[in-house]
């Protein structure tokens, strides 16, 4: 049975595609690609059908990640098929929990940096869109750091299903 994870930011062109590709690489490295499906979306549809921000694409490629992406808007009907919805900041967390059709679905929504013990109380991944390259670099560092803890949590869920 496939475990499905969806990363969500505002427009699905910077943070959530970055998280999607980084986490997909961690899943593949762990040999779980047949058990875990990873994708991303945005809370809004402003960029639907567009590719990822060129700065995101360049940074992902520079760091050895795939980057083929088409932006889309999160649809509340997806909650039924998703196991985990990973928000990139507190605004996304609130928006997604409001969209959730049931309390059980709302409980599926988590902040990405909550999986990084070093994050402390600052659990938002700042939006790099309006800034320079240093914002994208910082975003990637936060995503990579949180992905390790997220992988451990997902692995536990996947192994629990197999038991």
Describe the structure.
- This protein has 163 residues and is of the alpha/beta class.
- 42% of the residues lie in helices and 13% in strands.
- The protein is built from five helices and four strands; from the N terminus they run βαβαβααβα.
- A four-stranded parallel sheet has the order 2-1-3-4.
- Strand 1, helix 1 and strand 2 form a beta-alpha-beta unit.
- The radius of gyration is 15 Å and the shape is globular.
The structure class reads alpha/beta
Strand order of the largest sheet: 2-1-3-4
Low-confidence stretches: none
Q: Count up the helices.
A: 5
Radius of gyration: 15 Å
Give the DSSP E fraction (strand runs of 2 or more residues): 5-15%
What's the total count of β strands?
4
Q: Span from first to last CA?
A: 12 Å
**Molecular shape:** globular
Helix content: 40-55%
Note the run of SSEs as H and E.
Answer: EHEHEHHEH
Q: What is the residue-averaged pLDDT? A: 97
Main sheet makeup: 4 strands, parallel
